[in-house]
Amino acid sequence: MRRRIASLLGLAAVALLTVYAWQRMVPPPAPEVPLEVPLPGRADRVVIDKAARELRLYAEGRVLRRYRVALGGNPAGPKREEGDRRTPEGTYRIDAANPNSAYHLSLRISYPNAADRAAARARGVSPGGDIMIHGLPNRYASLGAGHRLYDWTNGCIAVTNAEMDEIWRLVAVGTPVEINP
User: Fold this and answer.
1) pLDDT tens across 56-88, in order?
2) d(C-alpha 61, C-alpha 80), whole Å
3) Domain with residues 33-180, CATH architecture
4) pTM, two decimal places
5) Using CA atoms, how far apart are residues 159 and 122, in angstroms rounded to an integer?
6) 95 SS3 class
7) Which residue, 75, 86, 110, 123, has most beta carbons within 10 Å?
Protein backbone atom coordinates (compact mmCIF):
# COMPACT_ATOMS: atom_id res chain seq x y z
CA MET A 1 0.00 0.00 0.00
CA ARG A 2 2.82 2.39 0.93
CA ARG A 3 4.57 1.68 -2.37
CA ARG A 4 1.39 2.47 -4.27
CA ILE A 5 0.93 5.76 -2.40
CA ALA A 6 4.60 6.67 -2.94
CA SER A 7 4.26 5.80 -6.64
CA LEU A 8 1.12 7.95 -6.97
CA LEU A 9 2.80 10.85 -5.18
CA GLY A 10 5.81 10.53 -7.48
CA LEU A 11 3.57 10.58 -10.56
CA ALA A 12 1.73 13.62 -9.24
CA ALA A 13 5.04 15.43 -8.66
CA VAL A 14 6.21 14.61 -12.19
CA ALA A 15 2.87 15.83 -13.60
CA LEU A 16 3.10 19.11 -11.66
CA LEU A 17 6.69 19.70 -12.78
CA THR A 18 5.71 18.96 -16.39
CA VAL A 19 2.84 21.46 -16.24
CA TYR A 20 5.13 24.05 -14.64
CA ALA A 21 7.81 23.56 -17.32
CA TRP A 22 5.22 23.65 -20.11
CA GLN A 23 3.75 26.92 -18.82
CA ARG A 24 7.23 28.47 -18.77
CA MET A 25 7.67 27.50 -22.45
CA VAL A 26 4.47 29.24 -23.55
CA PRO A 27 5.31 32.74 -24.75
CA PRO A 28 3.44 35.53 -23.00
CA PRO A 29 0.29 36.63 -24.80
CA ALA A 30 0.44 39.73 -26.94
CA PRO A 31 -0.90 42.72 -25.03
CA GLU A 32 -4.60 43.24 -25.58
CA VAL A 33 -5.24 46.27 -27.72
CA PRO A 34 -8.58 47.96 -27.13
CA LEU A 35 -10.93 47.94 -30.07
CA GLU A 36 -10.54 51.41 -31.55
CA VAL A 37 -13.10 51.07 -34.33
CA PRO A 38 -16.57 50.21 -33.09
CA LEU A 39 -18.16 46.97 -34.22
CA PRO A 40 -19.34 46.35 -36.88
CA GLY A 41 -16.38 48.40 -38.17
CA ARG A 42 -14.12 46.37 -40.39
CA ALA A 43 -10.39 45.98 -40.71
CA ASP A 44 -8.99 47.50 -43.89
CA ARG A 45 -5.66 45.61 -43.74
CA VAL A 46 -4.24 42.41 -42.25
CA VAL A 47 -0.51 42.21 -41.42
CA ILE A 48 1.18 38.99 -40.36
CA ASP A 49 4.71 39.14 -38.95
CA LYS A 50 6.10 35.62 -39.06
CA ALA A 51 9.13 36.28 -36.82
CA ALA A 52 6.91 37.78 -34.10
CA ARG A 53 4.19 35.12 -34.64
CA GLU A 54 1.67 37.96 -34.69
CA LEU A 55 -1.35 38.86 -36.83
CA ARG A 56 -2.56 42.46 -36.66
CA LEU A 57 -5.77 43.94 -37.98
CA TYR A 58 -5.67 47.60 -39.00
CA ALA A 59 -8.40 50.16 -39.59
CA GLU A 60 -7.50 53.60 -40.94
CA GLY A 61 -3.82 53.04 -40.12
CA ARG A 62 -4.40 52.12 -36.48
CA VAL A 63 -4.04 48.68 -34.90
CA LEU A 64 -7.51 47.32 -34.30
CA ARG A 65 -6.51 43.92 -32.82
CA ARG A 66 -3.42 41.73 -32.29
CA TYR A 67 -3.34 37.94 -32.18
CA ARG A 68 -0.59 35.40 -31.45
CA VAL A 69 -0.42 32.77 -34.21
CA ALA A 70 1.02 29.41 -35.18
CA LEU A 71 2.48 29.10 -38.68
CA GLY A 72 3.54 26.39 -41.08
CA GLY A 73 5.73 23.66 -39.59
CA ASN A 74 8.75 24.94 -41.54
CA PRO A 75 8.31 28.70 -41.02
CA ALA A 76 11.72 30.13 -42.01
CA GLY A 77 11.69 31.75 -45.42
CA PRO A 78 8.91 32.21 -47.97
CA LYS A 79 6.77 29.40 -49.35
CA ARG A 80 8.54 28.02 -52.43
CA GLU A 81 6.52 24.97 -53.40
CA GLU A 82 3.59 22.76 -52.56
CA GLY A 83 4.20 20.63 -49.48
CA ASP A 84 7.13 22.63 -48.05
CA ARG A 85 5.05 23.55 -44.95
CA ARG A 86 6.13 27.19 -45.20
CA THR A 87 3.91 30.21 -44.74
CA PRO A 88 4.16 32.54 -47.76
CA GLU A 89 5.62 36.03 -47.64
CA GLY A 90 4.31 38.89 -49.75
CA THR A 91 1.21 40.92 -50.55
CA TYR A 92 -2.12 39.16 -51.04
CA ARG A 93 -5.87 39.58 -50.42
CA ILE A 94 -8.55 37.64 -48.61
CA ASP A 95 -10.24 35.97 -51.58
CA ALA A 96 -12.78 33.63 -49.94
CA ALA A 97 -14.46 32.84 -46.62
CA ASN A 98 -15.42 29.30 -45.57
CA PRO A 99 -17.96 29.00 -42.74
CA ASN A 100 -17.87 25.16 -43.03
CA SER A 101 -14.12 24.74 -42.61
CA ALA A 102 -12.55 21.69 -40.97
CA TYR A 103 -10.65 24.34 -38.96
CA HIS A 104 -13.63 26.11 -37.34
CA LEU A 105 -13.78 29.06 -39.80
CA SER A 106 -11.30 30.05 -42.48
CA LEU A 107 -10.39 33.00 -44.65
CA ARG A 108 -8.43 32.08 -47.79
CA ILE A 109 -5.40 34.17 -48.75
CA SER A 110 -4.85 34.75 -52.49
CA TYR A 111 -1.54 32.84 -52.53
CA PRO A 112 -0.02 32.17 -55.03
CA ASN A 113 0.18 35.58 -56.69
CA ALA A 114 1.74 36.07 -60.15
CA ALA A 115 5.28 36.40 -58.73
CA ASP A 116 4.87 33.19 -56.65
CA ARG A 117 3.62 31.27 -59.71
CA ALA A 118 6.48 32.57 -61.90
CA ALA A 119 9.12 31.68 -59.30
CA ALA A 120 7.69 28.17 -58.86
CA ARG A 121 7.43 27.68 -62.64
CA ALA A 122 11.11 28.69 -63.00
CA ARG A 123 12.02 25.97 -60.47
CA GLY A 124 9.75 23.43 -62.17
CA VAL A 125 7.51 22.96 -59.12
CA SER A 126 3.92 23.68 -58.10
CA PRO A 127 3.60 26.74 -55.82
CA GLY A 128 0.85 25.09 -53.77
CA GLY A 129 -2.18 26.98 -52.56
CA ASP A 130 -5.10 26.97 -50.10
CA ILE A 131 -3.30 29.16 -47.58
CA MET A 132 -5.77 30.23 -44.89
CA ILE A 133 -6.17 32.18 -41.72
CA HIS A 134 -8.10 29.64 -39.64
CA GLY A 135 -9.07 28.36 -36.23
CA LEU A 136 -8.24 24.99 -34.72
CA PRO A 137 -9.09 21.63 -36.25
CA ASN A 138 -12.65 20.89 -35.22
CA ARG A 139 -11.70 17.81 -33.19
CA TYR A 140 -8.92 19.71 -31.34
CA ALA A 141 -10.77 22.90 -30.43
CA SER A 142 -10.09 22.25 -26.73
CA LEU A 143 -6.37 22.96 -27.24
CA GLY A 144 -7.13 26.68 -27.20
CA ALA A 145 -4.03 28.88 -26.94
CA GLY A 146 -1.87 25.79 -26.32
CA HIS A 147 -1.78 25.24 -30.07
CA ARG A 148 0.77 28.07 -30.28
CA LEU A 149 3.48 25.96 -28.65
CA TYR A 150 4.44 24.65 -32.09
CA ASP A 151 4.22 25.81 -35.69
CA TRP A 152 1.96 23.01 -36.88
CA THR A 153 0.06 24.06 -40.01
CA ASN A 154 0.86 23.19 -43.62
CA GLY A 155 1.60 26.87 -44.30
CA CYS A 156 -1.52 28.51 -42.92
CA ILE A 157 -1.89 31.04 -40.10
CA ALA A 158 -3.73 29.57 -37.09
CA VAL A 159 -5.47 31.30 -34.17
CA THR A 160 -7.83 30.06 -31.47
CA ASN A 161 -11.47 29.55 -32.41
CA ALA A 162 -12.61 32.51 -30.29
CA GLU A 163 -10.04 34.71 -32.04
CA MET A 164 -11.15 33.36 -35.42
CA ASP A 165 -14.76 34.27 -34.58
CA GLU A 166 -13.62 37.85 -34.05
CA ILE A 167 -11.42 37.95 -37.15
CA TRP A 168 -14.33 36.52 -39.17
CA ARG A 169 -16.53 39.45 -38.10
CA LEU A 170 -13.84 42.09 -38.75
CA VAL A 171 -12.23 40.96 -42.03
CA ALA A 172 -14.13 40.99 -45.32
CA VAL A 173 -13.33 39.22 -48.57
CA GLY A 174 -11.11 41.60 -50.55
CA THR A 175 -9.13 42.88 -47.54
CA PRO A 176 -5.38 43.27 -48.33
CA VAL A 177 -3.01 40.91 -46.50
CA GLU A 178 0.71 41.56 -45.98
CA ILE A 179 2.85 38.66 -44.76
CA ASN A 180 6.31 39.70 -43.55
CA PRO A 181 9.32 37.46 -42.72
Assistant:
1) 999 999 999 999 999 999 888 899 889 999 999
2) 30
3) Beta Barrel (2.40)
4) 0.76
5) 33
6) strand
7) 86
